[in-house]
Amino acid sequence: MANDLKSVFRESAGEFLLELEQALLHLNKNPDDMTEIDRMFRVMHTIKGSAAMVDLNDVAHFAHTLESECDYLRQGQAKVTPEIIHLALCAHDCLSSLIESHYGGEPVDPEQVENILQNFANARQQATVKSVSDAYGYEKTLKLIKATIKDLTGRAGSDPEKNVAAAGQKMTQLYYLLTIQNKESAAEFMSKLETVFRNARVSQSSLPEDLLDLAIEMMREVEEMYDDSGEVNEADFDPDKILQSMERPMSLNNRLNEITGRMRVKNAALPSLPASYKIKISAEERGPGSMNGSARFEKVFNRIGVVMPIKQKNSESETPR
User: Fold this and answer.
1) CATH code linked to domain 136-230+244-268
2) pLDDT surpassing 70 at residue 220
3) What angle do CA 313, 318, 321 make, to 5 degrees?
4) What residues does 279 pair with on adjacent strands?
5) CATH classification of 2-132 is 2.30.30.230, yes or no?
6) pTM of the prediction?
7) 271 Cβ partners below 8 Å, 6+ apart?
8) Kind and range of the H or E run holding 320
């Protein structure tokens, strides 16, 4: 059982390392992308926990240290710099070698491991910001809000799906920025809208036009909420003024609830798809060797998933998938 778990860990760790590399390559071009910073953190967190479960303690320690360093970036306490990207890629290679050393690979020099961790910590300390506003300034966040609105209003262009997806990605980044900057009201206001767009990206489903139009209104409201100086004077305590300031956000969120409610009803009314299919394949016996006919097809389909044994009938094969 222990060996089986270690085999599963090795396979899954390879997938996570690939995900880490993709995040780093993306961050190299977009160092302020909070979704990729969070992705890097989650990969380290997952590898740390999985390695500890199968008693690969050196791997768990290495991943845990990197996870802690990535948390500074995730919390906005340090910026992503080219040096951090370079060292993170070195750490990626070191982590891969550490894992493989438990499966017959060459052992990794402990001094090399500690040097990478120390260099990463030094680079992160040099990138530490004095305050959150240094890392995520007012102008940068406001620019991102305007870019989100531009994507939504420009969706009638040559590639509307791409524009909508880009707007959703910016919303996710904005939500993180607003939370880090303690703009709780604006973050809470747009949280459900961001979730709707994120779910649509994951499921690769389209969003109705009335929701996209509403999203423009809501992002303009976010812009006004963010642009608020925060200064309070005596007039701000007027109950009527307070109710007026709350009325529009509440109305917009109520409209969002109505639209998403209709979307749920529409999706529930869709016909259910069959749980399995049958594929009919005609095969000709060609070439030498034992991988002729059904054996060849079984090997191919078993790479996709578990399949039923193939039934042969006059050189024709059927298999449910």
Assistant:
1) 1.20.120
2) yes
3) 165
4) 319
5) no
6) 0.47
7) none
8) strand 316-320
